[in-house]
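INFO batch 0412 | record 1 of 1 | parsing
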Amino acid sequence: MKVVILDAKTLGDDIEFSVFEKFGELKVYPTTSPLQLNDRIKDADVIIVNKIKLDESNLPFAKKLKLICVTATGYDNIDINYCWKNEIGVCNVKGYSTDSVAQVTVSMALALSTNLYQFDRYVKNGKYTLGGVQNHLKPYFNEITGKTWGIIGLGNIGRQVARLAAAFGMDVIVNPHRVVDGYNCVDLDYLCKKSDIISVHVPLTGETKGMINKKRIAMMKDDVIFINVSRGAVADEEVLTEAIENGKIGGLGIDVYSKEPMTNDSPYNRILNRDNVIFTPHMAWGAYEARVRCMNEIVKNIETFFMGGKRNRVDLSKNTP
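INFO prediction complete | emitting tokens
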């Protein structure tokens, strides 16, 4: 059996892939361009992939392919319908990055709500030393205790963020796919109007694409902190940029982009140097421990698949034709 990893570089240089050698021949490619893809998958029995798009334009070249393992929870880069029709199994990984993403989400919220980077820079650029005053309090900031954190999406990550927000003494409101007992579930428009901090934790689907649009951003408080650690396309990037430029929202934390890496023509380039904006390179999921868990889960997915099991199979969902 031949196992091919197509974009190992997206998983970090500190991850060991030898765990997959027990399945047979292993080929590890740091990156794979569209021109290289067809040749690299033509003899593969198992493809392990993170971001590369696999669909009817390239999958017909993989004549031996039995299983695609996505090193993520989201699998919008895989043509599930094609795989279902051609009896190619597709497995994702669930729950491996919950603590990692929640940690980065809360880190962004705390840094933005306390103007942390501005105070850090005030010391590092020498102004504190030259100021002659023991403390410096501008820009002013507020405590988050008693404020409202609105969480869009209530999967594993959303629930963990809810627990952490509650631990800070915040009121938590949520907009889940369906009502969940034990949570203050509200509609999305209400959440946008009432929240002091909003974080997004949903997959990219036809329903969620563009859900944070001009209308909903206009509903938000002028000092709201908005954080997207899910998928870039769930939010209108141009409108978010304009909201920062116009002072319509107070802070922005972005880890995901509609095109990745962020392109030269992205509207976000206009606000790169703003004090109230944090951009990170789609890293929230990637704590070392999370990536190790991800690899171990993929090993289990492969083992189960070839034993006839259905562990983490996303091509067998009720929504697949």
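INFO post-check: The chain has ten helices and eleven strands.
INFO record closed
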